[in-house]
Amino acid sequence: MSQQAQKRIYFTPIILFGLLATFFISVGAYLQEQERAVERNKAENLSVQVVANLQTMASERHQAMESLMQNWPTQEPNYLDWFNVQAITLLSIQRGYSSLMLVDQQGVVKWLVRPQYSSEQYWDNHIVGQSLSLPGFLYHANGEQYFSQLVSNDKGHHFLLYGRMISPQEPHLGYVMASFDLQAWLAMSNGQIVEQHYHFLLTDTSLNTMTVGTNAPSEDTLFPIQSEAFNVLGREWRLQLATPEPAYRGGLLVTLVGLVMSLLATIVLFKLLKSAMNLDQSQLRYKTASEAALDALLIYKQEGNEYYLVEANKIANQLFQGDVCLLKDKPLSEQLRTFKQDHIVARIAEVVDTDAPFDDYIEVKSRLIKPQWLKVQIVRAGRDIAITLRDVTERFNAQQALLKSEEKYRRLIDGLYRHFVYTKTLEQSFVYVSNGLYSILGVPADTFCAQQSRYLSEVPNDASTRLKAIKSGENPAPYRLKLRADSGETKVIEFADTGVFDERGKLIAIEGIARDVTEEFALQEEVTYQASHDQLTGLMNRYAFDHYLTKLIGKVNAGEASAVMCFIDMDRFKLVNDSCGHPAGDRLLKEVANLFAEFVNENDLLARIGGDEFCMIFRNLTLEQVLDKLDRLLQHIAAYRFTVDEKVFFVGASIGVIDIQQPGCSAADLIKAADNACYKAKSMGRNRYFVYTPTEEQQALDQVESKVLQHFQMALENNGFELFFQPIIDLQNNKQRTQGEVLLRLIGEDGQHISPGVFIPLAEQHGVMNKIDWWVVDNTLRFLQQNTAFCRQLDKIAINLSGITLSDETLLKQIVQQIQRSNVPTEKLCFEITETSAVTNLTSAKWFIDELRALGCRFALDDFGAGMSSFTYLKNLAVDYIKIDGSFVRNMVRDKIDYETVKAINNIAQSMGKQTIAEFVVDDATREALVELGIDYGQGYALGYPEPLVNRCKTLQLVS
After folding, report:
1. Which domains does the chain show, CATH number per domain?
2. Minimal CA–CA distance to 192: which of 97, 37, 61, 57?
3. Whole-model pTM above 0.70?
């Protein structure tokens, strides 16, 4: 290469680079200056919008708190529930709160609500019931003045506390305090407007050290902007905003890209110049290499739609017996037709289109070419194509003979569906598998043999036993292994091993046939799972639980394990099921099951053994550790709220606990003991646990209960009960008519009466309250029929019905038939049902009431206000009387809240056209207060003691 040509190669690209670089640097500097001006304008506008958003958000939350306190109900019997519902609604509508709490007049936190989306907090739920640790709050939040203070939690997260007294005229209502997450406010205020590359710093002007904003402006920011002071929730703030120096700028990017493009253009020009000068030398080297090749090489050039031969090496002349030049005048397609290889024309088009080489073995029968078999390779060479040919006649004939000898065997083996043949060493290593494996695992046979440890999910644990059997000439039973398919799916394969022996009888390999049994195995697993698990919750069912408990008892008796069992019965589940339907009940059970599952680990057990009954077994934990878990579980259940169709339900769990350590106990005995303990937990107030302790006192108590239960059963059969009568007095009318309530007493073996507080819970526990109800109804009607004079003087007589009777259709028919057969006027009969049983069995209660009211009977709703009182339910129940629960009546002259509760129930009941009856009238002062309130009837020791119904009848006959 000449010296002048070398200078041209280097100097021409350098000059081009200098011109292009100057142009791009100038353009980049101009664009960078324009970007700075646009960014400053955007920052100024953003600062104004963020301040406006903060003030708007503050105004909305201030107005929301004002509205909450202005709408505070003064007559709400349970203001905590009202506050909880209002707070949840408010926090779900407006974001930015970290908590909303209710504080009483002495500064004690009564309730706290936190939003679900809040990850940062200043207070958590443990502050409920404690004094608020803000000394200045009670002083500054009096009257209509709001208390405002900035605080930080232990993570340095800032909150604004804001609140005041609910009503200056009613200081006993307390205070409402909100904590706002300032970091969230700032994020909401700027995140709704622009992208988040700006830095924000919110500073309280009175506390310059109290700042909010994780992206605070720094020294490397551009044109920081500070707003005027503005007011948010009683405090003055300033907002600083800046944009960081960008990691890259448009102008700088243009400059860099331009320089890179200039450099690339220079390099390309340099390469082109250098390539042009080296082309001749390259062609010379190529010519030399092609002539030295062992394969025939032919180069075809495209002209129009055809390819024509332009180059051929020496081997090509030898292959075509010196006549290759005769092919130059013919296009490639015609040459291929000459050799009867027309199908290659389409392959050439694919090579040109896809740039992928074409390889094939072809058979040639022509006098123009010596070989019978050729290996052909066609590749693209720019716009041309290159074809190489190799004589493979001898090798191909040998391979064809070998393939034919194996073809029959392979067709048989590879045609097996979901089966494959294998050979493995005595060390269980596969050396051959047929192609049937690919249809199962999607893995080529060679790959599986080379990487079998990758696909074997498990190693057979009885390989040595089977190998010993094979050596002795036996064929062991088939076994199953799990293999991992290429897709990640697990396949279950059944193997049947057979030994391969040499001439001396020595075992040298193992072969056999395997089949895919994944579907059969999955079906067996599914059947097994469904037989032992509850379909709704996925937990273990009663059958599997009994089996598990029996095995566990055996381990405990052998000293191999220790365990504690908990029997759980859901409280108020039936209320959800009856009022909202079975789908809602099913959803509640699944959610509760998930809640229980949080308190068990892989060593423990959770099972559903009945409709709303669950069992937990805690392994290798002491009773104290289990009780600590149950304390936390009950707290979670108490805080849990079930929402359906905008209704919120509170549920609970009564838990019976038993330590599984007594030898000789069966699974049935343990479940019965835990069930009894669960019932005791219910009788103690629900949502609690009771630990079964097999002490002498407990055993004695169980024996007493068992004795009472036996006596109770005999009393049902032998009329061992006695009817008592307690008068109900008309408080507004001096002309008294005989009316009262029928009470039941059980006569003991000694002739003394057994308290209903003893035998009634036992009857409820054993599900026989409907039999008691029938005995009372039947014997009351018989008594009235036999004592017609007493019946004529009677205005009404009240008969109690239990919750189980409300759901008993058969018993309802018996009661209706007995009333129709008797000559007792139906208007004299009044049936009492408790509020709790009516609400829990709402649908059944309505149907039961409607049936008996159609006969002329009247109804009273007993114990109203003590349980799940709801005037919505009251409006849907066709009752004539409301019996106000005695817990409110007993102390009403000494307790203002009880007095107002009785007054409210009476006003609402009478506005609905229903008469009221006050229970537990204990003295004359209470009677006078009830008369003053306008209560219609009263019942209690101050008005008349219970006495045998027979005595009451005799007294009236003597008076008359």
Report:
1. 35-244 (3.30.450.20), 293-397 (3.30.450.20), 415-524 (3.30.450.20), 533-694 (3.30.70.270), 721-959 (3.20.20.450)
2. 57
3. no
